[in-house]
Amino acid sequence: MTVSNEVSDLRAIYPDGVIAAGCPSRTVLDHVTSKWGLLVLVSLTEGPLRWSELRRRADGVSEKMLAQTLRTLETDGFVHREAFPVIPPRVEYSLTTMGEELAGHLVPLLGWVAARAEGIVARTR
Fold this sequence. Notes:
Order of helices and strands: HHHEHHEEH
Number of helices: 6
Shape: globular
Structural class: mainly alpha
Distance between the termini: 36 Å
Number of strands: 3
Helix content: 55-70%
Largest sheet: 3 strands, antiparallel
């Protein structure tokens, strides 16, 4: 599909070309494309991870932000939280089917950004 076809598809959903402030898609976009949301979702593409593993992969995230991000993504239905009945407690996070579908769109975006980031950042210096 070409970009112009995708734009036409978006025009069918948003006839004015504007995503209204109260539109649910803005809320979902905010959750998915937030700095930590994107990193958590992409990190989970390799399989289930424990809290500490996620924290290492999303280098720089605070405990509070990681907890908030995971809670939001779980509520949205993108992430599954599984607590195992063992001592000490063990919890793993994984992508749901919908989360895997979403990550399939985010991984190419992140690859594009990674391939061009150095040149883009150099332009701003």
